[in-house]
Specification:
The structure is a homodimer of 361-residue chains.
Chain A lengths: L1 E5 L6 E6 L7 H4 L6 E7 L2 H15 L3 E7 L8 H13 L7 E6 L1 H13 L6 E5 L2 H7 L4 E6 L2 E8 L4 E5 L8 H18 L1 H15 L3 H21 L14 H11 L6 H18 L5 H13 L11 H9 L11 E6 L2 E5 L4 H10 L4
Parallel strand pairs in A: 2-9, 3-4, 3-5, 5-6, 6-9
Antiparallel strand pairs in A: 1-2, 7-8, 10-11
């Protein structure tokens, strides 16, 4: 097991990465204010992992309630959130009862927002079971539900007390989800670490084949990069926005074709290809670097073009995105592989050229 | 105008108390990150005060959107909150658009929770127009909506950038609401300041008669007391719980007879009489002091006994209250007028005696 710390002062917390961690209840018990938790999970993850985690917590002297919601992005909504609140109240969970999210990004976001708002905030622990959640959404404290007008429109910042990323859970992950998770891994290399990007080019097939050592390295390096960014800018006042590379396009894709039709990582994959294309058109990125990113995404089995929504519709969808500041669209662009920055003033014609060139016809 | 500061480090903010403040748009404009606001108010307050505030903000160069929701505690729910989100999205409000709550405690709690969670948190300003909101709910950052199983069950801590308490708004306040607001004023004296309690005994009729100088003094002293407590314990880890004097009983009353049947201040009035009775039965408070509190509440026109719900039902309702810690009921009791503390271990028989003695038959 390796442990990465997120340096956030009194809200600092450990991210444990390794094998067999679901069976180590003491990792969670150690951070609880009271030995009582409510595990929130879904009906796909529960049969795979809930028994093991609950037994381990029980063995560590922790009283466990469980709340199982339906699987899927379409359930990251108010109705499901309210069902979680109902269950917490029915089981008399109080302000000291920690909520443990066991599942992928949807469960982490939903359970995290429940933890942020139940009785004005209760302790929270993340146990991510997908690659995407392990390398991205479980770290950094962003929680949310979707609104019909936009993804993650309603949410809060609520840091967990700990994150426990067990590599064993990746063994049962559907291949499509594994590939989607690789999108965020590639993103971390693209925005912050050229050497890690090189390593990914050399190891992408091993990652797709679930080589355990390769996966553990990719997860650890990803959370190190993300933890460092979050520690410097917890509330996304500046640098943290760089983690949204590919996401302005990606969220438009998800909203445009309906949440859940593409996996988040797939939309981000296409979104990064689009953002790289935009970077080239703006004159900041070498065409060869954009081609390398596209090739790596393709080898990971990710889309490198968006669906055919039409440029106008893309712009409309992006305008309601949270990352629009004062009505202007905002993009993360690359100056090189490993170096990203915010671009506020993108000419409309350039954006249209990217949207036309990088979406399916 | 007098200004009280809430000392919360980087989240510190001013509370302005005085006359004619709705017309001074610069008080709000000065704290905004961007000259754009969405005023959230209700259909009773809007005709009285919205025009004046909107014109003053406009004159200060602030772009104003308005969102009007139905009046009443029954609308402090998810449906109304979602209507606010819909309006914010329809008007393309972004992360830099401040939400301004113009109204009483319901509007402040609801708009505040919208501000806490819209796009994971936007700037917030409180313009309380009821005595209760001015002396209590607008200060301290507590925001929430109700859940069918309990009041304020879903919420967040989200401090405002400023609070603007205009005494002029009290002129149009229904008398019943004015009296309800006095409950929280009396509470501040009872838990923290014996001299202020003495002053209230000497001036309660002037307050009920809306003597402006008396009201301004009562509001300023109340927010000073509350601001000092909040500054020492923002997240209610300890001392801040003292502000809940009368509220464990009060919330049970509100939940037991249906939210909105009694005003919050009325329920707290009866709740304080009950908590004082409990304090006497526990042997910490002189009977004469409890009698003084009861007499002052009665002179303010507030109830000094709860509705006839039955002791068992009271206990049941209190058990789901947020303030129950680890399944145990928790009460704020008085050692004297001006001195409160937390009592965790109240014998069941003592509690039953209070519930029987202090509720209507």
């Amino acid at each position: 097991m390796q442990t990465v710390r997120v340096a956030l002062g009194e809200r600092a917390y450990p991210i444990h990465v390794g094998e067999g961690l679901l069976g180590r209840g003491e990792l969670i018990a150690a951070v609880l204010p009271q030995r009582r938790v409510a595990i929130v999970t879904n009906d796909v993850v529960a049969p795979l992992h809930l028994g093991r985690l609950a037994a381990a917590l029980d063995a560590a002297g922790v009283q466990v309630a469980t709340i199982v919601v339906p699987d899927g992005e379409s359930h990251k909504d108010w109705a499901t959130l309210n069902a979680v609140f109902d269950a917490l109240l029915a089981q008399r969970c109080d302000r000291q009862t920690a909520i443990v999210a066991l599942g992928g990004g949807v469960i982490g976001d939903l359970a995290g927002f429940a933890a942020a708002t139940y009785q004005r905030g209760v302790p929270f622990v993340q146990v991510p079971t997908t690659l995407l959640a392990q390398v991205d959404s479980s770290v950094g404290g962003k929680t949310a539900i979707n609104h019909p007008r936009g993804k993650n429109m309603i949410g809060a910042f609520h840091q967990p007390l700990a994150v426990v990323a067990d590599m064993d859970t990746l063994a049962t992950l559907p291949e499509r989800e594994l590939r989607a998770g690789l999108a965020e891994v590639i993103k971390h290399g693209a925005i912050a670490d050229a050497a890690f990007f090189d390593w990914l080019e050399a190891n992408i097939e091993a990652l797709v084949a679930r080589d355990r050592a390769a996966l553990a390295h990719a997860v650890r390096r990803s959370v190190e990069i993300k933890a460092a960014v979050v520690a410097r800018d917890e509330r996304e006042a500046g640098e943290r926005a760089l983690l949204n590379f590919g996401h302005t396009f990606g969220h438009a894709i998800e909203a445009g074709i309906g949440f859940g039709a593409w996996l988040h990582g797939e939309a981000v994959g296409a979104g990064m290809a689009m953002a790289a294309d935009l970077s080239v058109r703006l004159g900041c990125l070498e065409p060869a670097a954009a081609a390398r990113l596209r090739a790596l995404l393709a080898r990971a089995g990710l889309p490198v073009a968006g669906p055919a929504l039409g440029a106008e519709r893309y712009v409309e969808l992006m305008a309601v995105d949270k990352k629009a500041a004062a009505g202007r669209l905002r993009f993360i662009v690359l100056d090189a592989l490993g170096a990203a920055r915010i671009a506020d003033a993108v000419p409309e014609a350039t954006l249209h050229a990217t949207l036309t060139a990088c979406s399916r016809t």
